[in-house]
Write a structure and sequence with these properties.
single chain; about 325 residues; TIM Barrel; 12 strands; about 30% helix; binds S-adenosylmethionine; binds iron/sulfur cluster
Length: about 325
């Protein structure tokens, strides 16, 4: 079958699968503080339904998969899904993004299922600030889970750090030091307008350039790493002293839309061609009514065909997506 190429010539081989919209912490840039609106449980795709979708997507050229959420470790028996996905012919790369709260309990089973690539979300090394950002006092659990996963042999482990101005400035340099010390790449992610409370403003974004300047001043010169995959969203740098590397997901200050290779499957079975997409297409009904593979492939193709050139964060044309980050799948 022909690959998934959109009208701007972008090849799509990267699928992000959300397995739940639930979360056990409440990061202020993602979730409301008290009662998030969760979808009904019966709308969640089963692992068998996700596996079938992955098989069809692999037939259309998808090679890389990331499991995300909500908090994916809240999904019961997740290692069973990992095994299923790794067994799909054509899938070459599988990664998981987690907040790490449940890593200590689950890391071994995930490793045994074949998972090796982890992104652990950690914005700060300061317990009090972690509590303020996530509204939960679980910093110690995340650190414990992270170090345990490292000891088990997960590799690479990357740290996702969301950069919101006025809060995490004191964390930018210590996180980079921590990454250098433990052989983990820090990926600084500019705060994006995907929060459920509508608090995002352009002025609250700590930009990649600002962070680079902070890190170079305190630690030393950085050198841009030419990208093996020019479509990858992070701009990667290595320290000139040879110890460690860092990345920036500069979606706001330097959007990477023209190189985007991603499509998404939400936990309730909608296909999305962009994190910021306003429209999505349903496959849950097709999966549940025993539709032919071809019908599901047609939805994927149609979704990619309808992909826009890029989000327009910061411009007057920008419309925030109707779902917040936890419900789309970050
Ligand atoms: N719960 C997991 C976690 O936190 O890693 C997986 C889902 S979370 C939605 C995926 C990633 O989205 C997080 O690692 C966090 O870095 C990022 N994120 C969430 N809200 C964001 C926002 N408003 N702007 C930028 N990144 C955000
Ligand atoms: Fe939960 Fe991840 Fe959203 Fe934080 S960013 S509230 S950990 S889903």
């Amino acid at each position: 079958m022909s690959p998934l190429i959109d009208t701007y010539g972008r090849l799509h081989d990267n699928l992000r699968i959300s397995v739940t919209d639930r979360c056990n912490i409440r990061c202020f840039y993602c979730m409301p503080e008290d009662t998030p609106t969760y979808g009904p449980r019966e709308e969640l795709l089963t692992f068998e339904e996700v596996e079938r979708f992955v098989r069809i997507a692999a037939g259309l050229g998808v090679r890389k998969i990331r499991i995300t959420g909500g908090e994916p470790l809240l999904r019961k028996d997740l290692p069973r899904l990992i095994e299923k996905i790794l067994a799909v012919p054509g899938i070459e790369d599988l990664a998981l993004t987690t907040n790490g709260v449940l890593l200590r309990q689950q890391a071994q089973d995930l490793y045994n299922a074949g998972l090796r690539r982890l992104n652990v979300h950690l914005d700060t090394l300061d317990r009090e600030r972690f509590h303020r950002i996530t509204r939960r006092d679980v910093f110690d659990r995340v650190m414990d889970g992270l170090m345990y996963a490292k000891d088990l042999g997960f590799d690479p482990i990357k740290i996702n750090a969301v950069a919101a101005k006025g809060i995490v400035e004191p964390d930018i340099v210590p996180l980079a030091q921590f990454g250098r010390q433990h052989g983990m790449e820090i990926r600084y992610i500019e705060f994006m307008p995907l929060d459920s409370q509508g608090i995002w403003e352009r002025d609250k974004v700590l930009t990649a350039d600002t962070m680079i300047a902070m890190i170079e001043k305190e630690i030393g010169a950085l050198e841009a790493i030419p990208d093996a995959d020019p479509r990858a969203p992070a701009t990667e740098y290595r320290f000139q002293d040879g110890i460690g590397r860092i990345g920036f997901i500069a979606s706001v200050s330097k959007p990477f839309c023209l190189n985007c290779n991603r499509l998404r499957l939400t936990a309730d079975g909608k296909v999305r061609n962009c994190l910021f997409a306003v429209e999505e297409m349903d496959v849950r009904n097709l999966l549940r009514t025993n539709a032919e593979d071809q019908a599901i492939a047609n939805v994927i193709r149609a979704n990619i065909k309808a992909k826009w050139m890029g989000h327009q964060i910061g411009s007057t044309q920008f419309i925030p997506p109707p779902r917040p980050m936890y419900s789309i799948g970050g």
